[in-house]
Specification:
globular, 13 helices, mainly alpha
Length: about 270
């Protein structure tokens, strides 16, 4: 346990550094080359979205003594998990660990859309009526806790090396901020990027109010899972400038209030778009 605990401090420092740098770059990109005109108050949205992130981080720190990298350290010490059991060479283990964890997140995202009890918490993310870098951190605390438990299970089962888990987390957080960014990227460049990574135009389709589009483009980091499993839609039906973002029935000021977002999963609401 001591080795895992000692690893958390530098991990947190590294992740926070990457988070701050990528957030700043994406936010600057939104200022310089916006893709869409925002419909709602940016100040109110940012207060709620970033406020949600602060609550998420504080709650996780309060509940969990270790995080996925710490779990990976323990598994490496004990020889737990497939990659450790079969003593897969480090470079290959790193690659398999990152790829498998990203696939798990793709499956998790699909599950959160189609299992009613999980959708109730995930819908908070989708009620944002605009989409920008702060949408990437707009997740209900219950979803963050569930996601962390899924990561724990996946890391332990795979026996992913600690470094692969750290790299995966950095890629996941950075890619999420990038693909939620309100950034205009030339179509030719976007086409090249999305051969590997999920681009803002690709992920924006997922935030459409049209059901078929909401149930598509689940990938967070790598774009190929959607292509492989038939959940890929290249462009929105209404075009990026005219498409309506959010969930039908949730286009009032509820989506701008942090208190309403925190309470949303606990009330008997209609399961919109599902």
């Amino acid at each position: 346990m001591d080795a895992a605990t000692n690893y958390i401090s530098p991990e947190t420092f590294v992740r926070l550094g990457f988070f701050a740098a990528i957030f700043f770059v994406v936010a600057l990109g939104e200022k310089i080359a916006s893709r869409r005109i925002l419909l709602k108050s940016k100040f109110k949205r940012w207060i709620s979205n970033i406020g949600m992130q602060i609550i998420d981080v504080a709650l996780l720190r309060l509940i969990f003594p270790i995080f996925p990298v710490g779990v990976a350290v323990i598994c490496a010490q004990k020889g737990w998990g497939l990659l450790n059991y079969y003593q897969v060479i480090q470079p290959l283990a790193l690659f398999i660990g990152i790829l498998t964890l990203d696939f798990v997140i793709y499956l998790q995202h699909r599950m959160f859309h189609f299992v009613p009890i999980f959708w109730r918490v995930h819908m908070v993310h989708h009620t944002d009526q605009d989409i920008d870098v702060t949408t990437a951190v707009r997740f209900h605390p219950l979803e963050i806790i569930l996601s962390l438990l899924i990561k724990f299970t996946a890391v332990a089962a795979i026996g992913a090396p600690p470094l692969s888990v750290l790299i995966f987390e950095i890629i996941l957080n950075g890619a999420s901020m990038f693909n939620h960014g309100n950034i205009k990227i030339p179509l030719s460049f976007d086409h090249v990027i999305r051969m590997v990574l999920v681009t803002p135009d690709m992920h924006r389709v997922h935030h459409s109010v049209i059901v078929r589009e909401t149930n598509s483009n689940y990938g967070f980091s790598f774009s190929w899972w959607d292509r492989l499993f038939g959940t890929y839609i290249a462009q929105p039906q209404e075009g990026h400038d005219k498409m309506k973002i959010g969930l039908n029935g949730y286009h009032d000021d509820r989506s701008l209030k942090l208190s309403a977002l925190l309470a949303m999963p606990f009330f008997d609401q209609k399961r919109v778009n599902k």
